[in-house]
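User: Predict the structure for this protein chain, please.
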Amino acid sequence: MLPPVGVQAVAFTHDSVKVSWADNSVPKNQKTSEVRFYTVRWRTSYSTNAKYKSADTTALSHTVTGLKPNTMYEFTVMVTKGRRSSTWSMTAHATTYEAAPTSAPKDLTVINREGKPRAVIISWQPPLEANGKITGE
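Assistant: Here is the predicted structure, written as structure tokens:
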């Protein structure tokens, strides 16, 4: 069987990506009575040790949810008909949108400046999950 082609991944939100593809083994404009399903698998792109997650669908697209913000993912698709399956498709990549940090800065420290009664030095540690680039303080 031929794997799905033209796989595209487009970020929808900070935690979802829509993956779509074409199946060249189904003639265009022709209904097929064959039951076939597609398996979409994904993992983060930054780690080759990351485990794949997957979902099955009978449609030519699937929206993957529950992803981490500001993270690049890779997606591949396979078609299965009966006991036969294709190889995995070419890989498509998408990066989820940024989101607000999941917590406030921590370990806030305030130090008086010696000889300057109206000045202090404030320091802190960034949130555990920044969910993107922190641009304001």
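The first strand starts at residue 5 and ends at 11.
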